[in-house]
């Protein structure tokens, strides 16, 4: 169950398990998905629609390239 509240992100060649609560927003730029936390930006191999499937109800798709965590707005 704890795995459901985390996603994988990559930063400087290392893999990180990111808590959904730590994510501010997720953005698609030039066909690459980026996950933003307070202090870092991580890359994801997943498409935005694939990320949506892993997120809980606090995340809202704002447009075709951005998902926001409403807890941080």
Give start-end ranges of low-pLDDT stretches. Answer: none
Q: Can you summarize the main beta sheet?
A: 5 strands, antiparallel
Question: How are the strands ordered across the major sheet?
Answer: 5-4-3-7-6
What gap, in angstroms, lies between the N and C termini? Answer: 26 Å
Task: Please state roughly what percent of the residues sit in beta strands, choosing from under 5%, 5-15%, 15-25%, 25-35%, 35-45% or over 45%.
Answer: over 45%
How would you sum up the global shape?
Answer: globular
Q: Structural class of the secondary structure composition?
A: mainly beta
Mean pLDDT equals 92
Oligomer: single chain
Nearest-angstrom radius of gyration? 11 Å
Query: Count of DSSP E strands?
Result: 7
């Amino acid at each position: 169950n704890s795995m459901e509240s985390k996603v994988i992100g990559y930063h400087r060649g290392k893999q990180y398990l990111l808590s959904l609560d730590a994510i501010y927003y997720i953005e698609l730029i030039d066909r690459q998905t980026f996950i933003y936390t307070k202090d870092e930006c991580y890359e994801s191999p997943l498409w935005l629609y694939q990320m949506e499937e892993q997120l809980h109800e606090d995340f809202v798709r704002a447009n075709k390239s951005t998902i926001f965590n409403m807890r941080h707005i």
